[in-house]
Amino acid sequence: MLFTKILVAVDGSEGSFKALNNGIEIARNTGAELTLLYVTTEIALPLYGGVHPGGVASTVVEVKEAEVVEQSHGEEILNRALRRVDPEIKTTTAILHGDPTATICAYADSHNIDLIVIGNRGHSGFKKLFLGSVSQKVITNAHQPVLVAK
């Protein structure tokens, strides 16, 4: 199968940069276009106010500030990723907001992506059972072939 459009999901993790290396190699060998996608995380307000750790803001202002920080973080990660891509490979970037699995799959569908390349963080045991993994969910929900880099 000849790939013409490859989507690489990057989040700054070691696994996503392994995925990027795979995506670059495939694009180099097939002449495919490369899209690097970063999905910002959901910032939630607690039900009853107060200060909460880890992805939960206590005010609407904190949510807005967190979204700005997350956008900036995504831009930084995409810039790091872009520096690794050969200049002769046509590359675009995108930052989207939402559930990572749904966003990756929807983007791939709407942009006629031929291959999704994603990293694997290597969750195991209870963490994998309860949290699942984005890569596993993308494999299950995508309409395109998915390459998981380990």
UniProtKB/TrEMBL annotation:
Signal peptide: none
Cytoplasm keyword on record: yes
Keywords associated with the record: Cytoplasm
Keyword check for Phosphoprotein: no
Sequence ranges assigned to domain UspA in this UniProt record: 3-150
SUPFAM superfamilies from the UniProt entry: Adenine nucleotide alpha hydrolases-like (SSF52402)
Subcellular localization(s) per the UniProt record: Cytoplasm
Highest taxon listed in the record's lineage: Bacteria
UniProt xrefs under Pfam families: Usp (PF00582)
Family per record: Belongs to the universal stress protein A family.
The protein's name in its UniProt record: Universal stress protein
Organism: Fictibacillus barbaricus
